Amino acid sequence: MAITLVATPGAADANTYLTLSDAQDIIDGLVENDDVVAWGTATTDQKNRALYTATQRLDRERYLGARAT
Fold it and tell me: Distance from the CA of 68 to the CA of which of 18, 24, 32, 55 falls in 20 to 30 A?
């Protein structure tokens, strides 16, 4: 099943911090390495899954301070 990204800040169903387009802009500014090459050869679904997984990982981390919008 394909993952549909929802990057709307504050949305109840948001599941990523970045849109695929925003992520691509960041990747385009990086020095080419194995991870950048892997991103470039990945399918759209694989990229969506990577962004979703990264968001889940960030949300599980413990940070000092309080959550902000």
Answer: 24
Record the pTM. Answer: 0.85
**Other CB atoms within 10 Å distance of the CB of residue 46:** 13
The residues near 55 (Cβ < 8 Å, ≥ 6 apart) are: 15, 16, 17
Among the listed residues 67, 51, 60, the one whose alpha carbon sits nearest the alpha carbon of residue 19 = 51
Measured CA to CA, the distance from residue 7 to residue 16 in angstroms comes to 5
Q: pLDDT-based confidence at 26, cuts 50/70/90?
A: very high
